[in-house]
Amino acid sequence: MQSVIPVNLPQHSYNIAIAPGSLDQLGTWMQGTEAYPLKLGKKVLLVSNPTVFQHYGERAIASLEQAGFAVATCLLSDGERHKTLETLSQIYDAALTNRLERSSTFVALGGGIIGDMTGFAAATWLRGVNVVQVPTSLLAMVDAAIGGKTGVNHPNGKNLIGAFHQPRLVLIDPQVLQTLPVREFRAAIAEVIKYGVIWDADLFTQLEAAPQLDQLSNLSAELLQAMLTHSCQAKAHVVSKDEKEAGLRAILNYGHTIGHAVESLTGYQVVNHGEAVAIGMVAAAQIAVALQLWQGTDAQRQLKLLHNAHLPTRLPSGIDLDAILTSLQVDKKVEAGQVRFVLPTQIGAAIVTNQVSTTVIQQVLEHMQAV
């Protein structure tokens, strides 16, 4: 099963390729075709982390070198707490040492953190060089690698420093998920459920038909392919309509408003990104029900899917509710001092609103405190 999904943009169109076994053809994919040559230059900086590189680094390098690319590597420490400007400088140092040029290409081999940092480095090195995303986590495959959002964290907030920089290619090899830790797989299911809630009712229904969503071995090959294809199509469609989040694209932040606050306030060490998004989705669902925008029965359907993926649906113990409310005010999505929430209106549709009172947010958070 192989599919190619176009992301059609006025100036930066590219393809998302979902192809089992494609990691060993990375070099060929990066060459493009006679009708659609990618012209990515000969020098490549492969950015990864030690864990992913141990599994897949040599295969990626062999494929690139066989296709005629000259490959240098840069390995970054793993974990959200390392997604900083200080760590980013390691990519710049490697680019300088290996004399990467404007025609050169950065290749991100890893999860969302590697993809975000490599993309931001590519956006800013020599005022912009090519980047190819080769996601190795489900979360990166269905979300982070697509759409050109890049960046690093500030001590006071997630992804506050960044740029839009579209990749030239996103290459997804589902086979690499075999080595993905179970917790990371579960975290990504939150983003897949997100697409079902805000955009794709058919995807939501397919997820409901699966008895368990908590690990790869519980999914059929057909369901995994459907999850990847539907999620990538949803994001490609939204990004094509709104590349830089001027309107429609904001719906992709469903669950992220409170989720980002939870991540930041727990030092990126208690919950991972997908787990935080799951918590944020429960909060957004309860807010939507409180505002009579969404049926309580649909909120329960979402909750059941999150439980089937063994994802958290309560706030971490000990987190300060006032600190969450304060953190919301420095979120990227604040506009004119008003926090914007993405709220579902039915399965497959959502709106963006800044008409959520602090009282409602506080009531929902109190209800979600760990017991």
TrEMBL record:
<dbReference type="GO" id="GO:0003856">
    <property type="term" value="F:3-dehydroquinate synthase activity"/>
</dbReference>
<dbReference type="GO" id="GO:0008652">
    <property type="term" value="P:amino acid biosynthetic process"/>
</dbReference>
<keyword id="KW-0057">Aromatic amino acid biosynthesis</keyword>
<dbReference type="InterPro" id="IPR056179">
    <property type="entry name" value="DHQS_C"/>
</dbReference>
<keyword id="KW-0028">Amino-acid biosynthesis</keyword>
<dbReference type="GO" id="GO:0000166">
    <property type="term" value="F:nucleotide binding"/>
</dbReference>
<feature type="binding site">
    <location>
        <begin position="78"/>
        <end position="83"/>
    </location>
    <ligand>
        <name>NAD(+)</name>
    </ligand>
</feature>
<keyword id="KW-0520">NAD</keyword>
<comment type="similarity">
    <text>Belongs to the sugar phosphate cyclases superfamily. Dehydroquinate synthase family.</text>
</comment>
<feature type="binding site">
    <location>
        <position position="256"/>
    </location>
    <ligand>
        <name>Zn(2+)</name>
    </ligand>
</feature>
<feature type="domain" description="3-dehydroquinate synthase C-terminal">
    <location>
        <begin position="189"/>
        <end position="334"/>
    </location>
</feature>
<feature type="binding site">
    <location>
        <begin position="136"/>
        <end position="137"/>
    </location>
    <ligand>
        <name>NAD(+)</name>
    </ligand>
</feature>
<comment type="function">
    <text>Catalyzes the conversion of 3-deoxy-D-arabino-heptulosonate 7-phosphate (DAHP) to dehydroquinate (DHQ).</text>
</comment>
<keyword id="KW-0479">Metal-binding</keyword>
<dbReference type="GO" id="GO:0009073">
    <property type="term" value="P:aromatic amino acid family biosynthetic process"/>
</dbReference>
<dbReference type="InterPro" id="IPR030960">
    <property type="entry name" value="DHQS/DOIS_N"/>
</dbReference>
<dbReference type="Pfam" id="PF24621">
    <property type="entry name" value="DHQS_C"/>
</dbReference>
<keyword id="KW-0862">Zinc</keyword>
<dbReference type="InterPro" id="IPR050071">
    <property type="entry name" value="Dehydroquinate_synthase"/>
</dbReference>
<dbReference type="InterPro" id="IPR016037">
    <property type="entry name" value="DHQ_synth_AroB"/>
</dbReference>
<keyword id="KW-0547">Nucleotide-binding</keyword>
<protein>
    <recommendedName>
        <fullName>3-dehydroquinate synthase</fullName>
        <ecNumber>4.2.3.4</ecNumber>
    </recommendedName>
</protein>
<dbReference type="Pfam" id="PF01761">
    <property type="entry name" value="DHQ_synthase"/>
</dbReference>
<dbReference type="GO" id="GO:0046872">
    <property type="term" value="F:metal ion binding"/>
</dbReference>
<keyword id="KW-0963">Cytoplasm</keyword>
<feature type="binding site">
    <location>
        <position position="158"/>
    </location>
    <ligand>
        <name>NAD(+)</name>
    </ligand>
</feature>
<keyword id="KW-0456">Lyase</keyword>
<dbReference type="InterPro" id="IPR030963">
    <property type="entry name" value="DHQ_synth_fam"/>
</dbReference>
<keyword id="KW-0170">Cobalt</keyword>
<feature type="binding site">
    <location>
        <position position="191"/>
    </location>
    <ligand>
        <name>Zn(2+)</name>
    </ligand>
</feature>
<dbReference type="GO" id="GO:0009423">
    <property type="term" value="P:chorismate biosynthetic process"/>
</dbReference>
<feature type="binding site">
    <location>
        <position position="149"/>
    </location>
    <ligand>
        <name>NAD(+)</name>
    </ligand>
</feature>
<feature type="binding site">
    <location>
        <position position="273"/>
    </location>
    <ligand>
        <name>Zn(2+)</name>
    </ligand>
</feature>
<comment type="pathway">
    <text>Metabolic intermediate biosynthesis; chorismate biosynthesis; chorismate from D-erythrose 4-phosphate and phosphoenolpyruvate: step 2/7.</text>
</comment>
<feature type="domain" description="3-dehydroquinate synthase N-terminal">
    <location>
        <begin position="74"/>
        <end position="186"/>
    </location>
</feature>
<dbReference type="GO" id="GO:0005737">
    <property type="term" value="C:cytoplasm"/>
</dbReference>
